[in-house]
């Protein structure tokens, strides 16, 4: 266990060499900057040169063959190079790349990731079909939750599908899996889910979003909530509450369905319901109390 710790200490100073934004996870490093004109790419090239200088100084070489460039929402003819020993290699430009198990495309759509996740889950279904001739409800739920569904929900907050075709690709996998149990094949998909005590994948994604928002807003995770959410300015008004968040205007569907945007309407609806229920609960408690047990100011206001 000492090796990973020493590696992190070794690369800890790397961000101090960089001008633009940078993120690191283990031995993966990502650099990015906003390109408004061709000359904006100069600072990004300077960062790449700084990384090459750092790697040559500390003898921790970058693999130039695995370093890729992805242009997102711009068409400038920019090229980037990395020094590898005595040679200077041009970095390959790609439209799709796998990052921490997720396929990221230049248009930021999740179609490729949905197809990949569905394919992996279907291979799991085929493996189960080859090894199990018949399953009862309990065995199916154990196998499905352990070996099939996790492929459909890995890091789902980052690539949650919003197009109908992508949602259908994911949902058909679970529909196909419920065919395992012979006695349930005569029922429709919705009835199968009820009998198996399961929910649709779309409902599970919405529930997972709500759980993640709760953990971020309440400090359950080491994430700055200001990176995703901003408290509304009118949270003190008659229609507001302390959990009310502001929703920024979105021009593109990609932004509209991003995690921090798509969750706000659901969060506000849930929060309002909880507030109404809590107020009704308090009214019910007060209504069932005896008059002598009520505070003086309540009795006064009632007499008026």
The helix-strand sequence is: HEEHEEEEEEHHHHHHHHH
Major β-sheet, in short?
Answer: 2 strands, antiparallel
How much of the sequence lies in strands comes to 5-15%
Q: Globular, elongated, flat, extended or rod-shaped: what is the shape?
A: globular
Mean pLDDT: 82
Number of strands: 8
The share of residues in helices is 40-55%
Structural class: mainly alpha
Rg: 27 Å
Describe the protein.
The chain has helices at 2-11, 41-58, 111-131, 137-152, 156-159, 164-177, 189-196, 201-217, 253-256, 259-288, 296-303; strands spanning 21-25, 28-32, 68-69, 81-84, 87-90, 92-93, 96-99, 102-105. The chain is mainly alpha-helical and 304 residues long. Helix 3 runs antiparallel to helix 4 (137-152), helix 3 (111-131) runs parallel beside helix 6 and helix 8 (201-217) packs across helix 10.
Keywords:
mainly alpha; 304 residues; 11 helices; 8 strands; two-stranded parallel ribbon; two-stranded antiparallel ribbon; single chain; disordered C terminus
How are the secondary structure elements laid out?
Elements (H helix, E strand, L loop, with lengths): L1 H10 L9 E5 L2 E5 L8 H18 L9 E2 L11 E4 L2 E4 L1 E2 L2 E4 L2 E4 L5 H21 L5 H16 L3 H4 L4 H14 L11 H8 L4 H17 L35 H4 L2 H30 L7 H8 L1
Parallel strand pairs: 3-6
Antiparallel strand pairs: 1-2, 4-5, 7-8
Helix pairs in contact: 3-4, 3-6, 8-10
Describe what is shown at a glance.
With 304 residues, the protein is mainly alpha-helical.
